[in-house]
Design goal:
single chain, alpha+beta, Lipocalin, 3 helices, 34% strand, globular
């Protein structure tokens, strides 16, 4: 099973709200959507830096969970162990918005 459109819309809205209106052209946080994950990308004056990966694990029954990944120094995404898998992508977005770890926003 793949991500639902409402989950993608929620991430897109969160990214838009995360960036102050006067920074939309120069410093946005944008989602890069693939089949099973969404990368959050910081775009600072054309330099794109992946911040986090939100990975969806679905089942044929339509149930699924989301897992947060961070990007290491080599550019490889690793599972973020301080947040267990969650049922709703909004839980990861709330966690990231609370700015708990410099791994994501340093």
């Amino acid at each position: 099973m793949s991500m639902q459109r409402r989950e993608i819309d929620l991430v897109e809205l969160w990214c838009r709200e995360r960036t102050p209106e006067n920074g939309w052209k120069h410093h946005p946080v944008v989602p890069q959507i693939t089949g099973r994950h969404i990368d959050l990308i910081a775009d600072a004056d054309g330099i794109k830096t992946p911040i986090a990966r939100l990975r969806y694990f679905g089942s044929p029954r339509g149930e699924g969970s989301w897992v947060l990944h961070w990007r290491d120094a080599e550019g490889t995404f690793q599972i973020y162990r301080n947040l267990p898998a969650v049922d709703a992508v909004s839980e990861i977005l709330d966690f990231l918005a609370s700015d708990p770890d410099p791994l994501f926003w340093a």
